[in-house]
Task: inverse folding
């Protein structure tokens, strides 16, 4: 049975199932998860390790295909689309922040932020550079735009990743333990940044966290256990 | 610049040394390919030039006569005297009976640039030193210069002297050296008991030792007198504007004049096959260098793919499609290939130039005092083509592997 859909839901999934592993090691990680995220709100998914939080995030991010269930982004059913359509949907609608930064280290901060814009191709080179500088300024790295990834601290790298996630003005930002690898000060800074920018730009933030402080400051908290929300 | 190319350029720096080694391998492979092809083709071309300048593009010799055979017909007495000609049973009559008429007919072919009537025979040469067997060719020198490089093959004496001296002779260099003959010396030729005296007007060298050892040119009337053959000829030597069309022209001329016409490709098939085998063998050998470079490229790109799985996952999460990822790695192969191939062409050209200056004395099938090279664009095109096929095939496999990576698997493997 379908649940009622919130008017400003930008991403929604229904009855998601996902198994991981093979043969005897096969585990039913997601057991019929349904979820929706609304614009301008920060949604925190919490739960013990292995409960399926990250798997759900990758499903919502179209980085993985569900065994069963459906996903809509901006009202468009994308869960069973072709790889090309899912890839295009990622570029248009989604921004990712991962725990281990995943910055491309051979590129400068500016180039990292411009990377998704170059693929989308909406702006010209000058406009892309301008927007990247603006975003880096927003995350407090306006003076380090030309530093390579290797020349930035862990906190700075994560802030570049936040700027990069916002580059194409996605409607949803998916963050997997975005502060998991940072100290308290940097954790607070990154979360505040995400929350502020999401609210200002009307973006939905879905983050997976083990940090109770972060969860407490989120607009909605959803607990997961054994592959379902409890 | 496309985003994929931009990323590919930056990824190249990740394994700079390995990429550089692959580039060096491609450069050396392409360069060696070019220089070996330039040498083998150079010698082959020079050999062809020599044989064309010595024996002409076509040789018209024996007459073909269709044999007649009786075919049964229903005659009044039950016997038949009905005869038909058959292409399958042609009789060969040695020599050219009416060389002037055949020569005139052959000159009408568009590609024919010259025809020389040659009367050939074997005579015994005698000098103060000793005697030897000589292959005497009686020619009309003006005609023969139009079908040979004899004017450029003169080592001593002059053809001007030969032109004005009715008993003049042009003697092959090896024969002259063995008989200690010099311009102005005289010698005798004996055939069938008749003896005639000649004076050396010039000494020639074709570089083909089989010719230089035995051949003597005399005037055609002198040859007729020596061999007591007032009419006819042994063969006609024909030169063509485009010697490459000799096979086709030989077929057409033979059809028209009813004489055996041998193109230079058929006459020199053995040596041409040797040159072709050498060229192919060197191409295969040198291609292994390019193949090894391709394997190095494969290895390097496979390592880059392994090292860049996270970056691939990030790019996929940003909206880069599988095809984009494949292109990024194919670009890397293409960039190294382009740089290696360009450097290889420069190396090949420089090495070819250097080799052409190396001294080497060759006599036997041609005459040269330095390495002979051929400057042909086809060598460069072939080298780049082989390198492109090998390197791009080597790049394709890691590129496909990179494109197949599932971003979810990569990120999950790192984050959990």
Result:
């Amino acid at each position: 049975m379908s649940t009622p859909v919130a008017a400003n839901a930008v991403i929604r999934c229904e009855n998601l199932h996902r198994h991981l592993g093979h043969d005897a090691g096969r585990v039913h990680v997601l057991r019929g998860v349904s979820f929706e995220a609304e614009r301008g709100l920060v949604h925190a998914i919490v739960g013990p390790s292995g409960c399926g939080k990250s798997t759900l995030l990758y499903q919502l991010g179209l980085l993985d295909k569900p065994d069963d269930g459906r996903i809509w982004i901006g009202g468009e059913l994308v869960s069973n689309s072709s790889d090309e359509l899912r890839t295009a949907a990622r570029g248009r609608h989604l921004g990712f922040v991962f725990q281990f930064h995943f910055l491309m280290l051979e590129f400068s901060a500016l180039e990292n932020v411009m990377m998704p814009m170059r693929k989308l191709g909406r702006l010209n080179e000058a406009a892309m550079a301008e927007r990247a500088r603006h975003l880096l300024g927003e995350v407090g790295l306006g003076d380090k735009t030309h530093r390579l990834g290797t020349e930035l601290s862990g906190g700075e790298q994560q802030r570049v990743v936040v700027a990069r996630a916002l580059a194409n003005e996605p409607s949803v930002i998916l963050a997997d333990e975005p502060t998991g690898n940072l100290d308290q000060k940097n954790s607070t800074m990154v979360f505040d940044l995400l929350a502020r920018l999401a609210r200002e730009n009307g973006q939905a933030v879905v983050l997976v966290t083990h940090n109770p402080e972060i969860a407490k400051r989120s607009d909605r908290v959803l607990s997961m256990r054994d592959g379902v929300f409890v | 610049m496309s985003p994929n190319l931009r990323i590919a350029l930056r990824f190249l720096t990740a394994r700079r040394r390995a990429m550089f080694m692959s580039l060096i391998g491609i450069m050396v492979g392409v360069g060696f390919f070019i220089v070996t092809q330039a040498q083998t083709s150079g010698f082959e071309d020079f050999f062809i030039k020599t044989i064309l300048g010595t024996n002409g593009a076509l040789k018209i010799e024996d007459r073909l006569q269709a044999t007649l055979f009786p075919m049964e017909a229903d005659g009044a007495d039950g016997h038949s005297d009905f005869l038909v000609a058959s292409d399958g049973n042609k009789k060969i009559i040695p020599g050219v009976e009416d060389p002037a008429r055949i020569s005139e007919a052959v000159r009408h072919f568009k590609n024919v640039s010259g025809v020389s009537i040659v009367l050939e025979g074997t005579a015994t040469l005698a000098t103060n030193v000793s005697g030897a067997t000589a292959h005497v060719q009686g020619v009309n020198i003006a005609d023969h210069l139009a079908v040979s490089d004899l004017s450029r093959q003169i080592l001593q004496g002059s053809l001007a002297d030969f032109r004005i001296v009715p008993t003049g002779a042009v003697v092959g260099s090896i024969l002259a050296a063995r008989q200690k003959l010099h311009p102005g010396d005289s010698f005798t030729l004996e055939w069938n008991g008749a003896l005639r005296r000649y004076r050396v007007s010039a000494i020639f060298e074709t570089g083909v030792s089989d010719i230089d050892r035995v051949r003597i040119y005399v005037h055609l009337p002198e040859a007729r007198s020596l061999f007591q053959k007032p009419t006819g000829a042994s063969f006609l030597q024909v030169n063509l504007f485009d010697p490459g069309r000799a096979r086709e022209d030989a077929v057409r001329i033979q059809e028209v004049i009813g004489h055996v016409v041998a193109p230079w490709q058929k006459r020199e098939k053995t040596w041409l096959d040797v040159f072709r085998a050498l060229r192919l063998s060197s191409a295969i050998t040198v291609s292994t260098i390019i193949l090894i470079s391709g394997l190095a490229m494969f290895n390097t790109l496979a390592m880059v793919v392994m090292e860049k799985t996270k970056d691939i996952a990030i790019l996929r999460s940003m909206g880069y499609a599988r095809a984009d990822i494949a292109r990024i790695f194919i670009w890397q192969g293409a960039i190294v290939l382009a740089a290696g191939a360009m450097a290889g062409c420069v190396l090949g050209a420089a090495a070819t130039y250097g080799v052409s200056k190396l001294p080497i004395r060759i006599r036997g099938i041609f005459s040269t005092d330095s390495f002979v090279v051929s400057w042909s664009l086809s060598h460069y095109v072939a080298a780049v083509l082989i390198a492109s096929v090998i390197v791009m095939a080597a790049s394709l496999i890691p590129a496909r592997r990179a494109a197949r990576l599932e971003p979810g698997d990569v990120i999950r493997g790192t984050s959990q």
About this structure: Chain B has two domains: 3-53+271-415, 56-65+91-267.
